[in-house]
Amino acid sequence: MVDSATRIEMLGATLDLLDEGVALLDAHSLVVYWNDAAAALTGHRRMNLLSRVCPADLYEIAESHGTEPVLGATPPKEEYTGPKYSGQLYTQKHLVNGRPEDSAEDEAAKPILVQMKHHLGHSFPAMLRKLPLRDSFGKRLGTVLIFRPAEEIDEIPHGETGEAAVLHRSQPETEERLEGAFHEWKTNGTKFGLLWITVDQAAQMRRTHGRDACEAMLKIVEHRLAQALRPSEIIGRWGNDEFLVLSHERTLDMLMEHAHHLAGMTRTADFRWWGDRISLTASIGAIQAASGDTLSRLMLEAQQAMHASVYAGGNHVTHGSGHSVPAKGDPCSR
C-alpha cells in the first residue's frame, strides 16, 4: 500500500517528466508545485517559489489576444443565444451571460498567446492555459498554469483544441487584434501571416436567397474554419462575405498548406437551405510578413491574392507573389 507521502512524490515526479511548464497554485495563488520544465523555461527555481505567491509579472497577455479570461469573472461576451439548459437547475449566481458558470471556465481554459517573463528579465512568446482545480463537491482548490514556448505551437495539430477561436468577431475587433499581432511581430518576432478568405457562392446566394440565407451559410463556414485552427490563431469577419485568419505558421509554404486545408474544410461544410444542400468553395489569399512590411501593405497584398483566386475561377489559393493554384487536399487527412 502506497502511503500519502510516496503518492505525492510520485505525482511530482510525473509532472517533472512533462515538456510543458506546470505551476500548481492554491486558492491564494501560493505555489504548491513548480515542475522542472517551468523552472527551465522561466528561470525561477522551485525551491525559491514553493509556498510563495506566484510572480505577478510571470506573463502578460499578447496584444493580439486581448484581455485575459479571468477565472470566476464575467467575460466580455455577447448574450448567450444557444440551447436552453434542461435537466439541471441553475440559479442566477451560477450563470455567466445567461449560461452555466463552467462554460466561462471552459473559455478561460483555452490556450492564449502570452509573453512569459524570464527570471533574468527577458521575455519570450508562449501559449498558456489556466484551469481551475476543484474538489468532488465543486469547491475551488486552486489553479493550474500550463505553458510552452510559442515556437513549439507548430507541433500542435490544427483543430487540436476544437473551436478555440472566438467566433463572430466583428471587423473592428478583428482589426484591433491584427494591429496587436503585427506589433508582436515587429517587437518580438512572433510570426505574422494572413489568410484572406471569401466564400465563392456568397454574393450569388445573397442575391438569390437573401441576406438571412447568406448569413446562415457564413456562420456555418466560420464554425467549420474555426475547427481547423490552432489555439494561437484568430478568425474574424471582414466586409460582407469575407474572413481574415491571423496565423503564426513558420514559413510561407506552411501557411499555404494551411490555406489549402481551410479550403478543404469549406468544401465539407454542410449547408442546407429549404432542404437543398448547397456546395461551397473558398478563394483564399495568403501573405506572410517580411522585413520592411507594413500592416496596410500586407492587408492589400492578401486581398489582391484573394481576388486572384476568385479570378482564377474560385476554389483556389494564391500567395502574395500572385501564383495561384487550385485548392487541394483532403481536409480529413491532417
UniProtKB/TrEMBL annotation:
It comes from Granulicella aggregans. Residues 7-52 form the PAS domain. It comes from the Bacteria. This is Diguanylate cyclase (GGDEF)-like protein. NCBIfam families: GGDEF. Residues 190-322 form the GGDEF domain. SUPFAM superfamilies: Nucleotide cyclase, PYP-like sensor domain (PAS domain).
